[in-house]
Specification:
The complex is a heterotrimer of chains A (412), B (265) and C (319). In chain A, 40% of the residues lie in helices and 22% in strands. Chain A has 412 residues and is of the alpha/beta class. Chain B has one domain (2-254). In chain B, β1 and β2 (112-115) form a beta hairpin. Chain C has 17 helices and two strands. Chain C has helices at 3-18, 25-50, 58-73, 76-79, 84-108, 113-133, 135-138, 154-177, 179-189, 191-196, 201-227, 232-235, 239-251, 258-276, 283-297, 306-310, 312-315; strands at residues 144-145, 229-230. Chain C has a two-stranded antiparallel sheet. The chains are: A alpha/beta (412), B mainly alpha (265), C mainly alpha (319). Chains A and B meet through α2, β9, α8, α9 and α10 of A and α1, α4, β1, β2 and α5 of B.
Chain lengths: 412, 265, 319
């Protein structure tokens, strides 16, 4: 008796709450954009509620400006943005994108967070012919499937190393960085970090470096004693640590304690968030180089971008993916303007040919190029900027246009 | 030679971390039979919610208790990690990763390098485990806990209150787990969503040691640590997680009561 | 079983069969995935309700099915078989899962209770590590793609999944009425006693595990063919091992309809939370709370509660 009553009570309560939150009455014509985000679950550490808030504030801001001008309607149309929580689950993301396509009937998609979810979600875009602009999903595998309805703002991860090694070469030639000969690469066994590691290994030649060791660690690895032992024996000049920030913190601490101190410690994800320094402390953090999406951008709609970050309570280098998201959403609206219509095929064509000036400079999508041995279509060129922790702050080192400080060799 | 020593010590100190995860769980499983899949999540959060759960589950039959506890704590774990993740991001900081740079110092014994933070953890865990062990051996409540573990029905027969005792035990355990979490982040960062893998690590050590045998968790943790470091050295770090899983499986199949088990479960 | 129960079953199946053209693709997908969950739950119940073992590794069979199929379909020799490739890879996948079950049964069934549960949980994590590390075979963390021409549309997958689900639940029904099921339950009640009358425990438990692995593996195959892409977290995710026991518990283990109701209710709750309730606080939080509430408040499951059993409708189904 009790159990059934309880079950019915639970069921009724759930239904009641659901009924209260039913969708709002129909609105005049608007641009419907939809997507999912990892508000909870494993990826919520890097994205989470902030990502959803950022996108929603962006839509609000666009609407405060009056919306997007669509020639066919001869008016500026407001944006209606719908973002669901996919809980970091690809299954759920697919279900929700199906819902966005068929029930919510959105016009365009934004991509979810991370490559694994994007790989699945983009199949929905391809199925219905809905243009999808992804932001933080830069695994070449995503773009190597010949999909027609997909573009991504981010530069493929394997290429991140190119920017860093190019800077290293320039600095070494100019004598601002000690001449380094050898590099050891550590990569975490998740697609993104393996991609970053790929670049670390295969692009070392740009800076004249030889790779003396490649170590792969499991996701969320916590113990590096064996690796550190091996590396101490090899004594490489540079360590290229392609892991997520948390794992990198564990590594850096152990390296410090066990006496592994290369001349150059490059951890791409260490400057993607302000928190890294606090995680490892000054004795380790000083002088670590990394890469960041964020910089004091000089082009494009930068004022609006920084205002948006402020609105969501972000400061400094928090939440490094915001520029990617912003550019992805901006590209979509520019394509709509360019196409002059909400017709999906026209907008997709406009996206493919889109070239405009955005936060970091000119943005364009490339088709038919080769990245890390794969032929890809629709990859963007939002690059990352080499940066360094100096005096407890992230300073962008390269390119000179956005650099805030000069490279400092690591205290030995 | 120095390197081999470094590795061994590295493994042993890693074992300290693992014992940290496990000893409280050993205590709770053996006494209350509640299988807390959210153990790892508690490691990060450390609340004292067990009153509702343990009390509800305590009177049930063996099978029901096991399944019920798994499911209830799984649900609890999911909600707690979401709450923590969401709450932290909304109210504190957009990047919910917990890591402490304190107490980090290199130690050198001749040619051998040691991790200071891990030794701090080792010291803490040894002290804590021994304290709990003394608690179980010498105090009235502790003896009651052992009685509960050895023979639940007998415990009821002599008129002691299992609810009260299990609440005390769970609260103690959770507090210890939470404080352990605070020490853990000296060496390894934590985020709200890695509860479940930590729970599994914890199981490994508990079973390896023998459920209910707290000092044995130190030894089991050490063994596991050395095994993982050795695997990392000779097979590659990617296989280290497989080692603990394989070790656990082997122990379960060969001697389920664990290396030092008193057959308490 | 009585006439009423039979009619009801036929009607339900009939309704489910004609539903697809009426459903939007979201709901088609939701239903398809729900059938997969039902398969996992019903299979799980063979181990729990009938044999008394808590198998937290049911997802391993699912994952094996998904991975073996996808791996095979990426082999040129198999692709050359054309349409037959699907059948061949599905068969190999299911057989692999059954073999895995048969082999793992030997060490696993030396254990009981908590130890058995943990050992089975280990299986799925071990498989994940292997899937991650043996990149050349499995694609590693990057995962594997199913070549597009082998995709199975959600429409077709729905029907196949429905069929497999009917087989699974039907098998549980058969168990509740047959001597095999009786043998299982004897083992559950009193293993020594059963052994003494000639019911060799290991043999019967292995049979149970193998039979429970086959439909779940088939579910995994379908999932992979419909999703087109799998990786260690998608195919071998731990929820596929931890949710079926919950669904079985909610519905009532050891009953035929238990898994059906349990799966349905949990899936409804999940769908409501993630698709509809746009609460400012994350849906996962409430989902977790609901799971917890269910586990605490409904210990024996719906189908075992006296109130439900009194409805003659269900009497035929509850055992």
């Amino acid at each position: 008796m009790k159990t059934t009553v309880r079950v019915i009570a639970v069921g009724l309560a759930v239904a009641a709450v659901g009924a209260v939150v039913t969708p709002v009455l129909a609105q005049p014509r608007e641009i419907k954009i939809g997507g999912t985000m990892a508000v909870t679950g494993a990826f919520a550490v890097e994205w989470g509620p902030t990502a959803k808030a950022f996108m929603e504030e962006w839509a609000k801001m666009m609407n405060e400006r009056g919306g997007v001008f669509v020639k066919e309607a001869n008016a500026k149309l407001p944006i209606k943005l719908t973002v669901y929580d996919d809980g970091s689950s690809p299954d759920r993301a697919v279900e929700l994108y199906e819902r966005l396509a068929t029930t919510d009937k959105v016009d365009f998609f934004t991509g979810p967070a991370t490559s694994p979810i994007t790989i699945r979600a983009s199949t929905v875009a391809e199925k219905y012919g809905i243009p999808m602009v992804t932001a933080e999903a830069n695994s070449p595998a995503i773009f190597a499937r010949g999909f027609k309805w997909l573009v991504g703002a981010d530069r493929p991860a394997p290429q991140w190393a190119e920017d860093y090694y190019a800077m290293a070469k320039a600095l070494m030639d100019a004598g601002a960085m000690p001449r380094l000969k050898t590099v050891a690469v550590i990569q975490e066994n998740t697609p993104h970090t393996m991609d970053v590691g790929w670049g670390g290994i295969h692009r070392a030649g740009i800076a004249g470096l030889t790779v003396v060791a490649t170590e792969t660690v499991p996701p969320n690895a916590a113990d590096f004693s064996a690796i550190i032992g091996k590396l101490k024996a090899l004594n490489p000049d540079m360590l290229y640590v392609a892991t997520w920030a948390g794992t990198a913190a564990a590594f850096a601490k152990q390296a410090f304690e066990l006496g592994l101190r290369p001349k150059e410690l490059h951890i791409p994800h260490s400057t993607i968030t302000d928190k890294y320094y606090g995680m490892v402390g000054a004795s380790i953090g000083e002088g670590i180089t990394g890469t960041t999406h964020e910089a004091h951008f000089k082009h494009g709609d930068k004022d609006a971008y920084f205002a948006l970050r402020k609105r969501v309570g972000l400061s400094g280098f928090d939440a490094g993916w915001t520029s990617l998201r912003f550019i992805a959403l901006e590209a979509l609206t520019k394509a709509i303007e360019g196409a002059g219509s909400l017709d999906r095929a026209k907008v997709m064509a406009a996206l493919r040919g889109l070239k405009y000036e955005t936060l970091h400079g000119p943005l364009a999508f490339s088709f038919g190029v080769e990245v890390a041995g794969k032929k890809v279509d629709g990859v963007g060129n939002k690059s990352v900027f080499p940066a360094q922790w100096q005096n407890g702050k992230i300073e962008v080192l390269w390119p000179p246009e956005v650099a805030t400080a000069k490279y400092r060799p690591r205290p030995q | 030679m120095a390197r081999a020593l470094e590795l061994v010590i590295g493994g042993l100190s890693l074992g300290g971390i693992y014992a940290l995860l496990a000893f409280a769980m050993s205590l709770t499983i053996s006494t209350t039979r509640v299988l807390n899949v959210a153990h790892g999540v508690f490691f990060v959060w450390g609340g004292a919610f067990e009153r509702g759960i343990v009390r509800t589950l305590l009177g049930r039959s063996h099978q029901m208790l096991l399944v019920g506890s798994i499911m209830a704590t799984f649900g609890l774990g999911l909600s707690m990690e979401s709450a923590l993740g969401y709450g932290w991001v909304t109210f504190v900081d957009p990047y919910p990763v917990f890591s402490s740079p304190l107490a980090m110092f290199p130690i050198r014994l001749g040619d051998v390098a040691l991790s200071g933070s891990r030794l701090v953890i080792l010291a803490f865990v040894v002290v804590t485990v021994m304290s709990f062990h003394l608690f179980l051996q010498k105090t009235f409540l502790g003896k009651g806990a052992r009685a509960m573990a050895q023979n639940f029905d007998g415990f009821l027969v002599i008129g002691l209150n299992p609810y009260r005792l299990s609440m005390i035990l769970f609260t103690l355990a959770i507090m210890a787990t939470a404080i352990s979490g605070a020490f853990y982040v000296l060496a390894v960062p934590l985020n709200p969503y890695e509860g479940l893998p930590l729970t599994l690590k914890s199981f490994t050590v508990v079973i390896l040691a023998g459920v209910g045998n707290l000092p044995a968790t130190l030894v089991a943790g050490a063994l596991l640590g050395v095994a993982e470091v050795a695997t990392s050295q000779f097979l590659g770090t990617v296989w280290a997680p497989a080692v603990s899983l394989a070790v656990l499986f082997l122990v379960l199949v060969v001697k389920p009561t664990g290396l030092f088990g008193k057959g308490v479960y | 079983m009585n006439r009423r129960a039979a009619t009801l079953t036929v009607v339900t199946i009939g309704v489910l069969a004609v539903l697809p053209p009426l459903l939007s693709s979201t709901w088609l997908l939701v239903m398809f995935l729900s059938f997969l969950w039902l398969i996992l739950t019903a299979n799980y119940d063979v181990l729990d309700g009938f044999l008394g073992h808590i198998n937290l590794g049911q997802g391993a069979f699912f994952g094996l099915g998904a991975y073996v199929t996808t791996m095979m379909l990426n082999v040129a020799a198999v692709q050359a078989l054309g349409g037959l490739a699907l059948v061949v890879s599905a068969l190999v996948a299911v057989v692999s899962a059954a073999l895995f079950a048969a082999v793992m049964a030997v060490p696993l069934f030396r254990l009981k209770g908590l130890y058995f549960a943990i050992a089975t949980l280990i299986l799925i994590f071990l498989l994940q590590v292997f899937a991650l590390n043996l990149g050349d075979l499995t694609g590693g963390s990057y995962g594997l793609y199913v070549p597009p021409r082998f995709f199975v549309s959600t429409f077709v997958a729905y029907y196949v999944a429905l069929a497999v689900a009917i087989v699974s639940v039907g098998f549980n029904f058969y168990l509740s009425r047959s001597t095999l099921g009786l043998a299982f339950r004897c083992l559950k009640e009193d293993e020594e006693g059963a052994d003494s009358i000639g019911l060799h425990p290991l043999r019967y438990k292995t049979i149970g595990l193998v039979l429970a692995s086959v439909p779940s593996a088939a579910g995994g195959v379908l999932f992979a063919l419909n999703a087109g892409f799998i990786d260690p977290t998608i195919a071998l995710g731990v929820e596929r091992s931890l949710l079926p026991p919950l669904m079985a518990l909610l519905g009532g283990t050891g009953t035929v309809l238990g898994p059906v109701f349990g799966t349905a209710i949990i899936r409804i709750i999940e769908t409501v939370f993630f698709h509809y309730l746009r609460l400012p606080v994350p849906s996962m939080l409430f989902f977790g709370l609901t799971l917890m509430a269910v586990a605490l408040l409904i210990p024996a499951g719906l189908m075992r509660s006296p109130r439900v059993r009194r409805l003659s409708l269900f009497r035929a189904f509850s055992s």
